[in-house]
Structure formats: structure tokens, C-alpha cells
Design goal:
single chain; Hypothetical protein af1432; mainly alpha; 10 helices; about 200 residues
């Protein structure tokens, strides 16, 4: 996995610190872990989104869209889920599709979240939020799965507007994942932006 720097948690080896300090050092890895799919697509490291940046984007999109257009969804629950949904990547890394089976990926990520959340007093609650997202059985989890993909499409659009090429597969993946009409409308807007882009 390519990162901006080594995992900060290594600096705490053998040191006695409060659990919240250790968890923050672990979370710090997501701030330096590049989204590997962008690197594989040729986005230079200087421009590459990190996992933490993606998670923040997902949480904000979920909040803004839920409050504006989806009153039946719980925005606080969505924000919690958006912020926590990638914690499995702290120790598993950002595994791109096809890198391993979905079952193996899920198991690695589950071990990671259990390790991190197990340090916190409310760890079982955070694990339940992560599992809710993974299962995708609630309205919030299904919505967030679409938002997770929409954020990727929006980021691909940012990269295209900055002049990077060869990102069709990210738009195609977003297109396949979105079923909610209001989210598809956003994707249609991105498609129009692509058509209007000067070459």
C-alpha cells in the first residue's frame, strides 16, 4: 500500500498511552493512506485523495443530501457511518476491487475495526455502525453505499477538470451503483460536465 508516510502508530510501540491517543494515532494512518485506485489510474501522489479525505467527503455528502432531500433518513446516523465506514482500512489497507475475494477483504477489515474499536468504551457501538454499513440492510446503509460510490464519481470529475485522463471506469462504476433518482441526477450533472469539458 502506498502512503504519504509510515504509520504513526509505530511511534507508540512499547509506550503506555491512553486508548484515545492510540486510536487517534491509528486513525492517522487513514490520513496518509492514498486511495490506491487513483494511483493505479495515474493520479500523481501530490493530487491523490487519501482514505480520510474520502471518508470526510462521504460523511458531508450524506449529511447535505439527507437533510435537503431525504427527511426519512437519520443524518446523524449517516454521518457516524460515513466517518467510520473505512476504519477497516487502518490495518487492512485500501484493497482495490479484484485485489482479493470480498470475503477475505471483509475478514481483514473486520479484524482491523475490532482491534481499533476494541480500545474504546463505546467500541461495540462503533463496530455495530460499521457492521450496519457492511451488511447494507438498513435504509441509511444502502443510501451510504450509494454515497460512497457517488463521492468517487465526484472526485473523478474533480480530477478530470484538473486535466487528468483515463478515468472512465470510475464513472462507469458510479453509474452501476446508483439507483436513487436524486443521486443519479447528480451523476447526470457530472456526465454533462464531462461532455462540456474542453479537450
Amino acid at each position: 500500500m502506498e502512503t504519504k508516510r509510515a504509520q504513526a502508530i509505530r511511534k507508540l510501540d512499547g509506550r503506555d498511552v491512553l486508548p484515545i491517543v492510540r486510536v487517534f494515532f491509528e486513525f492517522n494512518h487513514l490520513k496518509s493512506l492514498y486511495r490506491q485506485g487513483w494511483l493505479k489510474a495515474g493520479i500523481p501522489k501530490a493530487h491523490c485523495e487519501t482514505v480520510a479525505e474520502h471518508s470526510l467527503g462521504v460523511a458531508l455528502l450524506a449529511l447535505f443530501l439527507a437533510e435537503a432531500q431525504f427527511p426519512e433518513l437519520d443524518p446523524v446516523r449517516l454521518v457516524r457511518m460515513g466517518l467510520l465506514h473505512d476504519f477497516g482500512e487502518i490495518y487492512a489497507g485500501d484493497i482495490v476491487p479484484g485485489g482479493m475475494s470480498l470475503e477475505d477483504k471483509h475478514e481483514l477489515e473486520r479484524r482491523s475495526v475490532e482491534r481499533v474499536f476494541g480500545r474504546l468504551p463505546n467500541g461495540a457501538d462503533y463496530l455495530a455502525v460499521w457492521e450496519e454499513f457492511e451488511r447494507g440492510e438498513t435504509a441509511e446503509a444502502r443510501f451510504l453505499k450509494e454515497i460512497d460510490r457517488l463521492e468517487m464519481g465526484l472526485q473523478a470529475s474533480v480530477y478530470e477538470q484538473e486535466g487528468f485522463e483515463g478515468l472512465d471506469k470510475f464513472f462507469e462504476s458510479t453509474d452501476k451503483a446508483l439507483t436513487t433518482p436524486a443521486l443519479r441526477e447528480i451523476l447526470d450533472s457530472l456526465k454533462a460536465l464531462r461532455r462540456g469539458r474542453t479537450k
